[in-house]
Amino acid sequence: MDKNAGFDLSGKTALVTGGGSGLGFAISKILIQSGARVIIIGRQEAKLAEACEKLGSQCSYKVFDLSAVEKIKWFVETLEAENGPLDVLVNNAGIHLKKDTLSVSDEEYQRVIRINQQAVFALTREVSVKMVERQAGCVIMISSMASQYGLPKVIAYTAAKSAVEGMTRALAVELSPLGVRVNCVAPGFIATDMSAGALNNDKERMARVLTRTPIGRLGEPDDIGYAVTYLASEAARYVTGVVLPVDGGNSIGF
């Protein structure tokens, strides 16, 4: 028996939102390495095309703006008509807003919620309708340490990601009896271009991060990819409703 058979995603098709860069690109890469065919979506065609070229023939892309929530049902139907059934959905795309809470406008707050929470639900609902018909599928949310801690200046992002974790548990209870597992990965401090750049320019903050991270270093984007691939695979067939911190122990560090 192949000792890696439980992690083999050959024959599976995964949709990764925001797959053109950062964590989404790393997630897509590891899914492809495990045998999956991956469709990445985003707003910028040039970025998606470049990512697909790097990821190889198992990757394709579709340009779509998730803020157009009213078009998500049409998008999912079109995507499956063109590519066949989706086996895995990874809700990775999101936007950020760093601003003092008392200065955040209603419009700014609503925009973050629309992309990071409302669109995540709408896409999950429409994909899950198809998965339930087949009694098979897997949905993986990407949360954030902002939902675990009280972080300043990210009130809208924190609210949205906290909702995503709550949705993970509620959806798992409803959908798992129908054949669809729902789980969530909560990344810690990961060395993406954006986060590593910010920390490298703030030595005091970097020291605080590393001091309370038992593993003693920043995570790599591939670490999130491996966690997502595990949850998408048969190796996690009895796992649902879980919020998995991938943070080097930061959330339990002292």
TrEMBL record:
<protein>
    <submittedName>
        <fullName>SDR family NAD(P)-dependent oxidoreductase</fullName>
    </submittedName>
</protein>
<keyword id="KW-0560">Oxidoreductase</keyword>
<dbReference type="InterPro" id="IPR020904">
    <property type="entry name" value="Sc_DH/Rdtase_CS"/>
</dbReference>
<dbReference type="InterPro" id="IPR036291">
    <property type="entry name" value="NAD(P)-bd_dom_sf"/>
</dbReference>
<dbReference type="InterPro" id="IPR057326">
    <property type="entry name" value="KR_dom"/>
</dbReference>
<feature type="domain" description="Ketoreductase">
    <location>
        <begin position="12"/>
        <end position="193"/>
    </location>
</feature>
<dbReference type="InterPro" id="IPR002347">
    <property type="entry name" value="SDR_fam"/>
</dbReference>
<comment type="similarity">
    <text>Belongs to the short-chain dehydrogenases/reductases (SDR) family.</text>
</comment>
<dbReference type="Pfam" id="PF13561">
    <property type="entry name" value="adh_short_C2"/>
</dbReference>
